[in-house]
Amino acid sequence: xxxxxxxxxxxxxxxxxxxxxxxxxxxxxxxxxxxxxxxxxxxxxxxxxxxxxxxxxxxxxxxxxxxxxxxxxxxxxxxxxxxxxxxxxxxxxxxxxxxxxxxxxxxxxxxxxxxxxxxxxxxxxxxxxxxxxxxxxxxxxxxxxxxxxxxxxxxxxxxxxxxxxxxxxxxxxxxxxxxxxxxxxxxxxxxxxxxxxxxxxxxxxxxxxxxxxxxxxxxxxxxxxxxxxxxxxxxxxxxxxxxxxxxxxxxxxxxxxxxxxxxxxxxxxxxxxxxxxxxxxxxxxxxxxxxxxxxxxxxxxxxxxxxxxxxxxxxxxxxxxxxxxxxxxxxxxxxxxxxxxxxxxxxxxxxxx
Length: 353
Description:
Layout: H1 7-12, E1 43-47, H2 54-63, H3 68-80, E2 101-108, E3 114-121, H4 126-136, E4 141-143, H5 144-153, H6 164-176, H7 193-196, E5 204-210, E6 216-222, E7 243-245, E8 249-255, H8 257-261, H9 265-274, H10 279-293, E9 310-316, E10 321-327, E11 331-336, E12 339-344, E13 346-349
Parallel strand pairs: 3-4, 10-13
Antiparallel strand pairs: 1-5, 1-11, 2-3, 2-6, 5-6, 7-8, 8-9, 9-10, 11-12
Helix pairs in contact: 2-3, 3-4, 9-10
């Protein structure tokens, strides 16, 4: 423990951010008490949407001896197949033209190999396709029509990924996002709550896995920003940004991908762990870089603070784990010998009030 200060106060210490430096005054180590994981216990850290179903299933496979990449992909597939999660796979929210485009990546810490697909259409499980890119080709990434052709050659079936509910959300967005087009804008009270909650959403699922003997693997999968420009690719399929794994540790992220690409977030976290930092402290390094790098006026709130968020996740080869984000109030998922649960993420910027 860091003295007698309670965790929330400690994490928020120094978070009154000046315009010149958003992270000025923050402590170098801003996390809660050390979480000890006995040697030999498998560990998985994941984004919050891995619960309640995906993480327990993936962790059970890891405990049973599954390869860490396979366990991570298994978890991602559970979310990709869930039509109620509109940020990943089947049921994901489409681009502005109404087409669901998916991105995913995997990386194996033991071999150093990686695989990714981007702008993949009509295939609901991009994580599994990314794994085949890693294991069956000499490439690291396939995109667009090439990724689709590869997936079909591997036996994946094309299907319409735009579910009725996702289509409803998209159509309300088309009608309401501009008053200068030829759509009749719906009245605010006409838009159902289950639709409105998805406007402006970015969403992804990430899993980083550590086996009982310390091998590491990871997977990140997403449908990207809702209503994005066709062909937009975020950080999720970019090795070193949305995901990075080696023999030191594994890290990934969810949130505004463009901001994470600019700081090579996942690679930054693993390098910080290589230098001896706890995974949570390493995640905070990346989060601070995003905060300090948010300088464009259109990315800021009126008070000068970032109008975006990113959550980082990490586990090292010893089995220590952690998570951190720009803003206070985020949570991440973990599964170990104590079970699957949500934990509060460390943060760089405290919410006002």
